Amino acid sequence: MDILVLGGSKFLGHRLVSLLLEQGNNVTVLNRGKTLTRELPFGVSRILADRSDSNQVNNVLQNLKFDVVFDISGYHPSEVSTTANIFNGKVKKYIFCSTVAVYDDSKIFPINEESPLNRKKDADDYCRDKILCEDLLIEMFKSTDFPVSIIRPPYIYGPYDTFLPRLFSIFARLTQGREIIVHGDGQSLAHTVHVDDVASAFIAVSEKDSTIGQIYNVAAPEAVTFNAYVEMIASIMKVDTKLVYLNSSDHQMVLKELGERRFSKVFDGMWKNSFIYSTEKIRYNLDWSQKYSMYDGLKMTYQWWIDNGLDQEVWNWADDDYVLSQI
Q1: Is 112 within a domain?
Q2: What angle do CA 166, 169, 175 make, to 5 degrees?
Q3: What angle do CA 148, 73, 151 make, to 5 degrees?
Q4: Between vectors from CA 216 to CA 3 and to CA 10, what angle results, nearest 5°?
Q5: Exposed, middle or buried by CB within 10 Å (0-12, 13-18, 19+), for 71?
Q6: Is 258 in the same domain as 302?
Q7: CATH assignment of the domain containing 76
């Protein structure tokens, strides 16, 4: 098949491109060409365009035809609207990468695809924009039969996750014998997912017509507490853990001092509250299942981190040290 991947040069997109090539597809990638990243696999065609410039995107895509479009880089409604309208009536499938961040807080688990979305006014930009992207795509499906499917993954980890190195920072802290800062008691549950499992889910969704107009959660087989997550990593690395717990008042104080961006590098907010996601829909309706348990996925990712010399990388722990000094 002739396939277009919007994005494709970073983490998930690059892995998806590799799997599509292994299947014998003709793959084209559209991106800005500005991200310093590893080379695309041999045989991939590249189109350069900035998705924030709708005229530029129209000019490079309007006369092209593809069987399937994978939208990995769609974050803003205007950008997604542009590409969706270009391919409306011209493509068999349009698979959009959304996120579990669209869900509202819940006390009922697991969260499934019908659970309420976070449409509150104080929702962050990322959540709000992804919901708006989903809304416009589903409306196009309802009004024009646009063949869209939507995938909602949680935090994705795996080799080459250097763009948001959450897991790699834990590897580094444990390697250097540093403390791991934990919000609350560390008993909140969260889901992650290995990059290979997400990429294979995109392909599985693209292969069946029954997925058109559908939304699918994709996550690991199990959710774990943050305490268990760190202990699992430490057992793989064969090191001891040093967990330091941050209570709510200290959390608010250091958050105010550092700001959200800097503090997020110290403490992963993914574990602030519990979130458990159902993957029953995609597992039961499609020929898809998770390849990696959390332990196996973390183990292979740690080995890749070591093999590629990332354990020698220099990290700036100034913000960690500041938080620790305030506890």
Answers
A1: yes
A2: 145
A3: 40
A4: 45
A5: buried
A6: yes
A7: 3.40.50.720
Asked if the structure places residue 282 within a domain, the reply is no
* 301: its two tokens: 């990712």
Q: pLDDT at position 266, please?
A: 81
The two tokens of residue 148 are: 């869209």
pLDDT score of 257 = 84
User: Residue ranges of the chain with pLDDT lower than 50?
Assistant: none
Q: What is the domain extent for residue 321?
A: 161-190+223-275+293-326
Q: Assess whether 137 and 183 both reside in one domain.
A: no
Assess whether 78 and 131 both reside in one domain.
yes
Residue 272 CA, chain-centre distance (Å), reads: 18
- The pLDDT tens digits for 239-295 are 999 999 988 787 788 888 888 778 778 877 777 788 999 999 999 999 899 999 999
